[in-house]
Amino acid sequence: HLLLFYTPFYINKPFIVTKGLKHNKLMAKLTFFLAVQILLLAAVSSIGDDGKNFARTIDRKLLGLHKKEKLTHFKVYWHDILSGPNPTSIMIQPPVTNSSYFGAISMIDNALTAKVPMNSTVLGQAQGFYAGAAQKELGFLMAMNFAFKTGKYNGSTITILGRNTALSEVREMPIVGGSGLFRFARGYVEARTKWINLKNGDATVEYSCYVLHY
């Protein structure tokens, strides 16, 4: 009786082992086949790739560029603070000559406020640098981002790059780009000095900004 009871177990066991071996061989073949296909695809895709096809044309609608452009105007007040324990403008390269500040470079993280007083609502920061770029007059190369951090435009920026003849009543500089709600921005700013301390160089400048964007 014991022999009859265990006989089916011994009969089926070789069958199970054989079936498992066949399954493993099949999986190995499939794995090898897939690996060969992947290698062939990689080889084909690399043939003739000389770096000329890294860019492609896409539909403007994917980035919302089919919409009508908007013209936005706003004013902010730029506070250039050189004095005190926490200056927001620091000269990192002294000028060649003090008469025109030619060669000087200053990094800035200036507050942008809603009104002239520095204790008015802060709308964002002007971050970048200005450099003395004129030998015979007080002229600066301005390269800075207006990074907004309140209201509708929180997280958005505009980028200003241009020539600033600081003693002129009105200085016009281009807006060359932006991010967030100001993606693909273009336009210009008008800068007007509202206040300056001739002893320490602190100044407040009004920036009237005209921005075309989607």
From TrEMBL:
<dbReference type="Pfam" id="PF03018">
    <property type="entry name" value="Dirigent"/>
</dbReference>
<keyword id="KW-0964">Secreted</keyword>
<keyword id="KW-0052">Apoplast</keyword>
<comment type="function">
    <text>Dirigent proteins impart stereoselectivity on the phenoxy radical-coupling reaction, yielding optically active lignans from two molecules of coniferyl alcohol in the biosynthesis of lignans, flavonolignans, and alkaloids and thus plays a central role in plant secondary metabolism.</text>
</comment>
<dbReference type="GO" id="GO:0009699">
    <property type="term" value="P:phenylpropanoid biosynthetic process"/>
</dbReference>
<protein>
    <recommendedName>
        <fullName>Dirigent protein</fullName>
    </recommendedName>
</protein>
<dbReference type="InterPro" id="IPR004265">
    <property type="entry name" value="Dirigent"/>
</dbReference>
<dbReference type="InterPro" id="IPR044859">
    <property type="entry name" value="Allene_oxi_cyc_Dirigent"/>
</dbReference>
<comment type="similarity">
    <text>Belongs to the plant dirigent protein family.</text>
</comment>
<comment type="subunit">
    <text>Homodimer.</text>
</comment>
<dbReference type="GO" id="GO:0048046">
    <property type="term" value="C:apoplast"/>
</dbReference>
